[in-house]
């Protein structure tokens, strides 16, 4: 576990999931904010759940990253009204 996680992530995961400390107390112990602790927990738990970082896919499987670009339809110019 120690090589998978950054020190901040490891500390947050251990203090929350092993010792069941509240976020406020963990934030005080790590000299950071509760939001930073939540982010470290999210990243740390994600890395523990998928230690390969999503690289387990077969190279033969191609997942498109974006839709192919299509030209947008041309719009007519706006009419300007004058008095």
From TrEMBL:
Signal peptide: none annotated. Residues 5-48 form the RNA polymerase sigma factor 70 region 4 type domain. Residues 43-83 are annotated as: Disordered. InterPro entries: RNA_pol_sigma70_r4_t2 (IPR013249), RNA_pol_sigma_r3/r4-like (IPR013324), WH-like_DNA-bd_sf (IPR036388). It comes from the Bacteria. Residues 64-83 have a biased composition (Low complexity). Keywords: Sigma factor, Transcription, Transcription regulation. Pfam families: Sigma70_r4_2 (PF08281). Belongs to the sigma-70 factor family. ECF subfamily. This is RNA polymerase sigma factor 70 region 4 type 2 domain-containing protein.
């Amino acid at each position: 576990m120690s090589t998978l996680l950054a020190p901040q992530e490891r500390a947050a995961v251990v203090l929350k999931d092993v010792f069941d400390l509240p976020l406020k107390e963990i934030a005080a112990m790590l000299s950071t904010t509760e939001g930073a602790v939540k982010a470290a927990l999210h990243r740390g738990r994600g890395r523990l759940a998928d230690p390969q970082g999503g690289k387990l896919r077969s190279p033969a499987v191609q997942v498109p990253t974006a839709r192919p670009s299509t030209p947008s339809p041309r719009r007519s110019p706006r009419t300007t009204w004058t008095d």
